Amino acid sequence: MRSPMTFKDHHRESRIFTVRLIWSALIVATLTLVLVARMAWLQAAQHDRYTTLSNQNRVQTQAIAPPRGLIYDRDGTLLAENQPDFSLALIPEQVPDLTATLNELAEIVNLDSHDIDRFRRRLQSPRRPWEPVPLRARLTETEIARIAVAQHAMPGVRIDADPIRHYPHGALFSHVLGYVNRISAEDLDEMDADEQANYSGTHYAGRIGVERHYERLLHGQAGYRKVETNARGRILRVLEEIPPQPGQDLQLHLDMRVQQAAWDALGERRGAVVAIDPRDGGVLAFVSRPGFDPNLFVTGISHQNYANYRDDHDQPLFNRALQGRYPPGSTVKPIIGLAGLDAGVTDWQRRIWDPGFYRIEGEERVFRDWRRQGHGWVDMHKAMVQSCDTYFYDMGFRLGIDRMAAFLSRFFIGVRSGIDLPSEARGILPSREWKRGARGQSWFHGDTINTSIGQGYMLTTPLQLALSTAVLARQGVPVVPRVARLAPPAPPLAPTVLEDNDHWQRMTRAMVDVVHGATGTARRVGQGSAYRIAGKSGTAQVFSLANDEEYNAEEIAERLRDHALFVAFAPADEPAIAVAVLVENGGSGGSSAGPVARATMDAWLLSETGEYRLPPPGLPEIVPDTLGGPVITDFPRTSQEDSRAP
Amino acid sequence: MHLEPFRQLSSGAVGRPNSLSWRLHLDAPLLAALIMLCLGGLLVLYSAADSNIEVIVRQTMRFGLGFAALFLFAQIPPRSYRFWAPVFYGIGLLLLVLVLFAGVHAMGAQRWLAIPGIGRFQPAEIMKLAVPAMVAWHFSERSLPPRFRDVLVVLAITLVPVALIARQPDLGTAILVAAGGLLVLFVAGLSWRLIAAAGALLAAAAPLMYFFVLHDYQRRRVDTFLNPEADPLGAGWNIIQSKTAIGSGGITGKGWLNGTQSRLDFLPESSTDFIVAVLGEEIGLVGILLLLATYLFIVGRSLMISWQAQDNFSRLLAASLALTFFIYVFVNIGMVSGLMPVVGVPLPLVSFGGTSIVTLLAGFGVLMSIHTHRKLLGH
C-alpha cells in the first residue's frame, strides 16, 4: 500500500524517520547504560555497605542479662535472691489506639498517673521499633489473670517475666546489703564502652551497700543472642548464642543470728551496732536503725513511700553505722590511756586526787568530771573502771594533742577503715593541723583536754569504734573489716607495738572490770555472763539540733539527751568478737548501749541452747545450690509478639 | 542515506514469508523474547510472593489472556487499526469520563470500571494503545516532519486523556499515555528547537507543578526521592529498603528464594512495583543484566519492526509502542533503584497483576501485525 505522495516525499520522510529511530536507539542505549551503571554502583561499589544494612535489618543482637549473684550470710542463709516478676509492657507499633488501650488496661490493672507518666517518658526516649515499652512491674496474680483474659482484644499488650531482686529479710540487712534499682542513663554514661555492652541487657544495678560495692562481681558477664527477625520484629531463628556468665554468689561474714540479736536489742531506738570478729576482720553484724524496706526500691519506689522515708525525723535512709559521725566519749579512754602509758606520762601506779574537776595551773577554766563530787584518789585502773574524767584531763594535757592524735590514728580514729562498703565516712581526728585547716584557728589547751575524754572536735563512726576495739583486742594488730568473703587487702596500718607489752593485758583487765568489777560503770552488762567481757561505756553530749528540722517540745527534750555508746570485746582472753553500740539520745552508755552489746556477743558466743562455745575463726564452706531458695538462671519470654500484628 | 536495501535484506533471516510464524502473523524472535521474559518473571515472582503458588497461577492466567490478545491483535491488518483508530480513541475518552463519575474507588483513587460478569478494568489502559494510534492516524495522510499546527493537534489528542487519567489520580499511567502520544511526535521528526523549547518550558513549570498540580502524596514522593533518609521509617522506607535489597545482592545475588530483604518482608510491594529489587537481591547484577538484555532485545526488535514498516501510520505507531515499552522499564527500574521519584509504573511483564500485561502483549500483537502484513519486494 502506497501513500498518494510522490516517491521523493516518501524518501525524505523515510529518511527523517530513520534518523529519529537511530536517535531513539541511541537514547535507549544510553538510558540502559545509566541503569546498568546505577545497578553496578549499588551492587558492586556499594555492595558492602548495603550488605551491612541488610544484615542490620534482619539480624538483631539481643543481650542476655546474666543472672545476678546471690548473697548469703556465713551459714548460707539467703539474704538476696532473684525472683520472677511479671511486668506489663506494650509494643506501641502493634497498638492501634494507645490512649484507648491504656484506658482499658487501667480498668483491669492498677495504674496510677506515675506509671502512665513514666511510660510516656519511655515512649519518647530513643528506642528500636517493635521493642516493648514497660508500663508496670510487679503484677499480682489477679492482674495477670485479668490481662490474660482481655489480651486477645488488645494487640501489642504483653506480659514479661523477668528476674527481680528480692530481699527476704527486708529492713534487717537494709543498710549493709543496700539494694539494686533500675539502671539509669546517668549510670550508663559513667561506664566505658565495654561496660555499657556488658550492661546492655541489664535492667538493674546495685545502688548502695554490698550490692553496690560488689556490683561487678554480682553482675556477671552478659551473653548475647543473634536472631533473625522479619520487618515486624518477629524472631524467626536464633543464629548464634553465647550464654551469659552468671554473677558470682557472695558469702558474707554476717551472721544471721548476731545481726538479728543486735537488731532486736536496739529495738525501736535509733542507733547502730557493728560487730567484728577481730581474728579475721569479718563483720558479724552491721545494723543501723531505723532501717528501710529495700524491696520498695527495686522496681522504683513510689513518691509517697520515698517522701515518707525522706521526711521521717528518724532518717531511716541514713546509714548510722557507716556514715554517722558521733563523739566517741569515754569509749576512747582505753586508747588514750595506752597512749599516755606508752608515752610515759603516766604508769599504772601513778595516782592523782580528783576533786570533781580539773583546772590547768594558772588558768581560770574548770573542766568538770561527770561525777560532781569527784572520785578521790584515782589511778589508771580505777580511772578506767569508773571512767574518771579528771584523771584523763590531767594525763591528756601532759601527753599533748600531737602524741595523742598520732596514737589514735593507729586505731582507725579519723581513718577510713577500707571496709567493702561504699561511701564510708572518715570522721574527725582533731589535731593542730586539722583545726588550722578546718576552723582556721590555733589549738588551745582546752581542746586537748576535751579530746582526752573523746569530746570536743573528735567524731567517729560506729564502724571505726568497732574496729578500734578489734585492734585493741588484737593488741595492736590492725584489722581490715570485711563484709564479704573475699581476700582482704593489706591492712592500711602497721601493727602498733608498745614499749611495754604488758600494758595491753592490764588495759584489758581494766576493761573487764568495767563490766565485771563491783564498781564498773557497766557492771549490769556482765551479770550472768558465761564468758568474760572487756568493755568501755561512753556518753556523747549532744549540743544542738540541726536547724532545718522541726521538732515538738517533747521531741526536743528527747533529742537533746546524750548519745549512749558502748564498746566491748569478748572473750577477754581470746577475743572472738568486738562490738561497738551507739544509741542516739540513749543517755548513759553502760545501761542503755551495754545490754545491746551483750545481746550481740551472746548471739555469737553462745549456742542456740545458751551454752558457751568459741566459734572457730573464718567462714564455713557452704554449697549454695543445696541451700534452697530459687536459683533463677533464665526466663522464657512470653512472646505473643507479631501473632496479632496487623 | 540509502538504507532501503538493508531494510529488505534484514527481514530475510527470520520470518520468511512462507514460514509458519509468518503465516500466523507472528514474529518469532520477538515472541521468543517475550515468552522468555514472562517465564523468567514468573520465577522472580514466585520468590517475591513468598512461594505462593496461587499468585503464579493467577499471573499465568493473565499471561494466557495476554498472549491470546497478542495473537488476536496480530491477525488484524494495520489498515484496520488505522481505520478504527479514531473510534477506539473516542470510546476510550468516553470511558475515562465515565470513570470520573461511575468508577470504583480503591486505594485512594478512582481508576476502575466495573463490568458486570467480567470484573473490573482500567479504561486508562485502552489509551496506552489508542493515543499513539490516534496520533499516528493524524500523521498517516500528512507529510513529515510535523508542522506547528500538527504539534497542537497531537498535544490536544494526548493531553485530554492524560489530564483525565491524572485526575483519577494515576500518575504512572498518565506518564505512559503521554509518552505514547509524544513519542510519535519525536519519531515523526519534530524539530529539535521545539523539543528544546518544550523541555525548557517543562523545567520552568516543574516547581509550579510541584506546588499546584501534584497531590499531597505525590509531593511526598518527590520529597522522599530528594531525601529518603529524612523519614526512614515512613515515606523513605520503600526506597531505602529496595536499594538495600539491590545493593546487598552484589554481583551474583543471595540465591533464588534466599533474598532476606524480600523474604523477611523488609521490602514492600515486592511482587508488584518493586519486583526488580527481588531479582537484584537474589540473582544479583547478573540477573539485572540478563533482564536488561532481554528488554533491550525486545525494544531493539520492535524498533527494527518500525523501521521496516512501510507507511507512516505503521512505523509511527510501532516506534511509539517500542519506546513506551522502554519507558516502562526505565521508569520502573529507575524508581526502584532510587534514580527517580516513586511513580506507580510496574516492571513490564514481570510485576504481578494489573491490566498492563494484557495491554502490553496486545501492543506487541499490533507490532507483529505491522511486521507480517507488509508487502515484500520481489513478491
TrEMBL record, chain A:
Q: Where is the signal peptide?
A: none
Localization, per the record, is: Cell inner membrane; Cell membrane; Membrane
Q: Which cofactor does it need?
A: Zn(2+)
Chain segments annotated as coiled-coil in the UniProt record: none
Textual note on the cofactor: Binds one Zn(2+) ion per subunit.
Q: Which residues form the Penicillin-binding protein dimerisation domain?
A: 64-239
Q: Which Gene3D superfamilies match?
A: DD-peptidase/beta-lactamase superfamily (3.40.710.10), Penicillin-binding protein 2a (Domain 2) (3.90.1310.10), Penicillin-binding protein 2a, domain 3 (3.30.1390.30)
Q: Topology in the membrane?
A: Single-pass membrane protein
The catalytic residues are S330 (acyl-ester intermediate)
Source domain of life = Bacteria
Outline what the protein does: Catalyzes cross-linking of the peptidoglycan cell wall.
Identification of the protein by name: Peptidoglycan D,D-transpeptidase MrdA
Give the species: Alcanivorax quisquiliarum
Gene transcribed to yield this protein:
mrdA
TrEMBL record, chain B:
Return the broad EC class: transferase
Family annotation (InterPro entries): FtsW/RodA, RodA/MrdB
Transmembrane stretches in the record are 28-48, 60-77, 83-104, 148-165, 171-188, 195-213, 283-304, 316-343, 349-370
Mind listing the UniProt keywords for this protein, alphabetically?
Cell inner membrane, Cell membrane, Cell shape, Cell wall biogenesis/degradation, Glycosyltransferase, Membrane, Peptidoglycan synthesis, Transferase, Transmembrane, Transmembrane helix
Coiled-coil ranges from the UniProt annotation: none
Query: EC?
Result: 2.4.99.28
Its UniProt entry gives the catalysed reaction(s) as:
[GlcNAc-(1->4)-Mur2Ac(oyl-L-Ala-gamma-D-Glu-L-Lys-D-Ala-D-Ala)](n)-di-trans,octa-cis-undecaprenyl diphosphate + beta-D-GlcNAc-(1->4)-Mur2Ac(oyl-L-Ala-gamma-D-Glu-L-Lys-D-Ala-D-Ala)-di-trans,octa-cis-undecaprenyl diphosphate = [GlcNAc-(1->4)-Mur2Ac(oyl-L-Ala-gamma-D-Glu-L-Lys-D-Ala-D-Ala)](n+1)-di-trans,octa-cis-undecaprenyl diphosphate + di-trans,octa-cis-undecaprenyl diphosphate + H(+)
Q: Report the function annotation for this chain.
A: Peptidoglycan polymerase that is essential for cell wall elongation.
Write down what this protein is called. Answer: Peptidoglycan glycosyltransferase MrdB
**Gene name in the database record:** rodA
